[in-house]
Write the structure tokens for this entry.
Amino acid sequence: MDQLWNVLLGAAIALVGSVVTTVLQARLQRRAKREEYLWNKRAELYVDLLRHSSAQIAHIDDDHVDEQYGWTPEREQLRLDLTARVQLFGSAAVEERWRQVSHAGQRLDFYARENLLEARGDYAQLRSDAYEDPEYVRLSTEVKETRRFLVDQLRRELSTDRHLERAA
């Protein structure tokens, strides 16, 4: 009789162990899928941020945006979309770096519009001596640096270098 109880106890322990293992594996798989989904959303967002940061798409709460220059309903919708996605999937550091890129680009655009554009038919173009203007060069460098800081932050958050085995 003791032997039967030992066999039943062993079977019960094995059954409980397999149920617990199955439940834990299912939970870990769900967590891994959720993390993969969020990583993919973040990666997609960060690529979009890089693509649009050159076009001066600014954060929706950014008070420094000149709505008269280059404003279209499509650009405004893109601002809304990018801001919502950054607030949902991005980090606070990325949001701040994005604002820095946007502000630097706006300062450069404003300076160029006010000082370095010349009429060319129906449009304006930078004067040929713009790249010799010290303030324009300084502002251009600031734009490049802030964008590089943004790219570095995005790469860190996505662990791009580690995953691609690329040296920084």
